[in-house]
Amino acid sequence: MEALEKLAKLWPLLSKGIAESLYMTVASTLMAYAIGLPLGIALVATDKGGLREMRIVNRILGVLINIVRSVPFVILLVAIMPFTRLIVGTTLGSKATVVPLVVGAAPFIARMVEGSLKEVDPGAIEAAQAMGASDARIIFSVMLVEARPSLVLGAAISITTILAYSAMSGFVGGGGLGTIAINYGYYRYRSDVMLVTVTLLVVIVQAFQEIGMRLARYIDKRART
Amino acid sequence: MIQLKNVTKTYKTRSGTIDAVKDVSLDIAKGEIYGIIGFSGAGKSTLVRLINMLERPSQGQVFVGGEELTALSRKKLLAARRSIGMIFQQFNLMMQRSALENIMLPLSIAGYKKQESKKRAHMLLERVGIPEKAAAYPSQLSGGQKQRVAIARALATEPKVLLCDEATSALDPSSTESILSLLSDINTDMGITIVLITHQLHVARSICSKTAIMENSRIVESGYTGQLFDYPKSQGAKKLLMASEDKPRAMLSIRAFAGSQEAAKDIIGEACTIEGIGLSVLYEGSGNVLFSLQSDEGSEEKLKSFLGQKSISFEEL
């Protein structure tokens, strides 16, 4: 009972943590998609046999993406602090964390999008070409439409990954549930707080993943009979 | 309607270059159903893609409806493709779009208004005989129904030419028949020129007015379908016709040199009594006999061994 009362006192803090975590995650995911989606399209279009085959461009993009992806997120978080300060004016709090989250997640999303678009049946693309569709038309009316269920699944994976990244930012004062877990659970030995924040993170990840999978299944027109 | 002039398509590979299509010239008249047959790997699929420039020829010129496609800018080429419909072996429908939406896609690409294209799509579904499937998704349709949707989609922008790449090869025999009769009807009703690529000889035989035979990237023989099937001249054509499932239909000619009129009569008399072979015989004069028989293995062997026994020399034609 006592333990519960203690936790109840922490509720205002926890609810603020949840709100911040969700804000960081959703805002970063949206912005990371704004960069990652076009990048993913570019990767597929410039690849061998793509709509606009440009091997050199493809190579350069691939290497750049791999470089960012190979930096562990905790390192990236600290390494780009000057850049973060330049953009938002501070390196503390959830708003500041959005910057490294976007930088870290965009290349990841680009690869997810690339994977989804490559699954599109080349026959469908050829049919569109035979109709006289332009490349832009093929991307928007064929590839992105045919890949929709796979893109949604990818988005579910991306958003949960970004949530996990956002929790890491707790170590450098990034805000959200991660910061609560570090400050209370780790530095103040409040294992009950640690347990609660971790549980909350697990619940949120499950929710995103489940919603994503259900949505993907719902919009997919292939599996129905 | 369609003219290919000395068209060659060369692919570069690591181990050198491959000519998928070599120096092919074709002239296909308006309203014709033109078949192109050959073994797989002969270059048929590449050839049909040269007609709508999905594959750009390495050499030569392509004309469709009097317009030289090989000389067009990219933008004009895209517009020109709207007058060339195409259907495929695997149907290539958009899996995330309903039958109706699939047919509306080329219309929307061609700039039709939504209401108008919807109306047209319904009309086309009616034309291909499945108006009740408008809302169905491809995964809910049978192979034959999918190909009907694909045909409706290909016809949406009122093309002058319809290219069919192994359009019936993934279908069961009864769907094949119904799709072929649909194509034939469309050809009659709309006067659309159809180019049909297939490895199924009976398909070409049943609906093509003219047929070309492709072997090793070249067209080895072409002409009126009946004539071509019954009297193939080139080695390539004979090989293809004999290897096919239509074996009994392919004819083989053997000329025997009996020596004298007398001997020829005897041979004709005896040959006709050999059991289990069907032949027709023509006396050529000066002691030569021309046997024409169906080239299923048994008959050919029996006749040859009979002639061998009689020590009569012969040649295959």
How would you summarize what this structure contains?
Chain A is mainly alpha-helical and 225 residues long. Chain A has ten helices and no strands. Chain B is built from eleven helices and 14 strands.
List the helices and strands and how they pair.
The complex is a heterodimer of chains A (225) and B (317).
Chain A: H1 2-46, H2 55-70, H3 73-79, H4 81-88, H5 93-118, H6 122-130, H7 135-146, H8 148-168, H9 176-186, H10 191-219
Helix pairs in contact in A: 1-2, 1-5, 1-8, 1-9, 1-10, 2-5, 4-5, 5-8, 6-7, 8-10, 9-10
Chain B: E1 2-13, E2 16-28, E3 33-38, H1 44-51, E4 59-64, E5 67-68, H2 74-81, E6 84-87, H3 99-109, H4 114-127, H5 143-155, E7 161-165, H6 173-190, E8 193-198, H7 201-207, E9 210-215, E10 218-224, H8 225-230, H9 235-243, E11 251-257, H10 261-271, E12 279-285, E13 288-294, H11 297-309, E14 313-316
Parallel strand pairs in B: 3-8, 3-9, 6-7, 7-8
Antiparallel strand pairs in B: 1-2, 1-4, 4-5, 9-10, 11-13, 11-14, 12-13
List keywords for this structure.
heterodimer, A: about 220 residues, mainly alpha, B: about 325 residues, alpha/beta, six-stranded mixed beta sheet, about 30% strand
Taking the sheet with the most strands of chain A, its summary is: none
The proportion of strand residues of chain B reads 25-35%
Structural class of the helix and strand makeup of chain B?
alpha/beta
Alpha-beta classification of chain A: mainly alpha
Q: How confident is the prediction overall: mean pLDDT of chain B?
A: 88
- In terms of per-residue confidence, which ranges of chain B show pLDDT below 50 for 5 or more consecutive residues? none
Count every beta strand of chain B, where a strand is a DSSP E run of 2 or more residues: 14
Mean of residue pLDDT values of chain A:
92
**Gross morphology of chain A:** elongated
Q: The biggest beta sheet of chain B, please?
A: 6 strands, mixed
Evaluate the radius of gyration of chain A.
21 Å
H and E string of chain A: HHHHHHHHHH
Strand content of chain A: under 5%
Oligomer: heterodimer
C-alpha end-to-end distance of chain B: 35 Å
- Tally of separate helices of chain B: 11
Span of the ends, CA to CA of chain A: 53 Å
Number of strands of chain A: 0
Helix content of chain B: 25-40%
Rg of chain B is: 24 Å
**Residue windows where pLDDT falls under 50 for at least 5 positions of chain A:** none
